[in-house]
User: Which sequence fits this backbone?
């Protein structure tokens, strides 16, 4: 308890805990549908696109506009200042666009789901690395994007994250039945009059928002774990959709908080520590499930 009180005495840790708990909750809720629909790796693909967009946003605001004529430098300067004042906006817009593109590619008979995710994922990383290669002076910033940093969380980021996380949670609760129907049987959902395409698009949109919000702390390389591990852990012991969703939400929030406590106490990287705690819980739940089945695989 002393470690927890010490941790919460720092403003940056308070911001990280508030945002992290909300993002972990969103990721766990959405992760159940993503795993069941075999979209588990979409988080990885979107995070890599978010990486490229964040790198571009970081480079854009450093561009020297003085050589340009005034009629062009003025409007561009205003756009760059707007991007600088709202650093989540560009990554959010690009990642949402990539989410809808992935949805369309996944429905194509020529490109299956895994290939679509790999296409978007590798392209995002490549673009980000290319931009890094032609610029200088932002190495530390890029490291934070890849692996996460609680110090990168500003007050404005916290407010944006809280607002968007609440929107994600509200939409998930309001349209829970429709998302459940689309997750389990699209054909039956269509037959009952459910507008499947709308709810699949909503799932992609909410996932993109969650990925962008979580990248600040978890990093582009680890954020997908927040959607994957809690859902898989809950599925080891639970069979009903609602029970899986509830248990996954509890696991996601608990693992994040415990991971942050260990990170603070042992001076470990926060993102990697949270993933490590999730891995331990997954292995524990898998062992319990194995014992309950009487040792049968």
Assistant:
């Amino acid at each position: 308890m002393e470690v927890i009180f010490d941790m919460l005495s720092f403003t940056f840790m308070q911001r990280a805990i508030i945002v992290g708990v909300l993002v972990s909750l969103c990721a766990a809720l959405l992760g159940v549908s993503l795993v069941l629909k075999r979209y588990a790796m979409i988080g990885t693909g979107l995070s890599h696109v978010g990486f490229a967009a964040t790198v571009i946003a970081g480079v854009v605001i450093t561009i020297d506009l003085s050589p340009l004529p005034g009629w062009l430098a003025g409007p561009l300067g205003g756009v760059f200042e707007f991007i600088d004042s709202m650093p989540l906006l560009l990554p959010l817009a690009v990642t949402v666009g990539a989410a809808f593109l992935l949805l369309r590619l996944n429905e194509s008979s020529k490109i299956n789901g895994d290939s679509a995710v790999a296409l978007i994922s590798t392209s995002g990383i490549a673009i980000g690395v290319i931009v890094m290669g032609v610029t200088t002076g932002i190495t530390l910033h890029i490291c934070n994007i890849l692996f996460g940093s609680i110090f990168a969380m500003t007050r404005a980021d916290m407010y944006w994250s809280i607002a968007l996380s609440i929107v994600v949670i509200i939409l998930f609760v309001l349209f829970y039945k429709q998302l459940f129907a689309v997750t389990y049987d699209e054909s039956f959902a269509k037959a009952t009059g459910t507008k499947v395409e709308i709810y699949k698009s909503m799932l992609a949109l909410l996932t993109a928002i969650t990925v962008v919000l979580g990248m600040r702390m978890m990093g582009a390389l680890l954020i997908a774990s927040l959607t994957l591990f809690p859902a898989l852990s809950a599925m080891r012991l639970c069979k009903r959709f609602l029970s899986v969703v509830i248990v996954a939400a509890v696991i996601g929030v608990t693992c994040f908080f415990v991971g942050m406590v260990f990170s603070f106490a042992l001076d470990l990287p926060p993102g990697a520590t949270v993933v490590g705690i999730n891995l331990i819980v997954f292995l524990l739940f898998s062992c319990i499930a194995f014992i309950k089945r009487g040792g049968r695989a």
In short: The radius of gyration is 20 Å. DSSP finds 14 helices and no strands in the chain. The mean pLDDT is 82. Residues 171 and 206 are 9 Å apart (CA to CA).
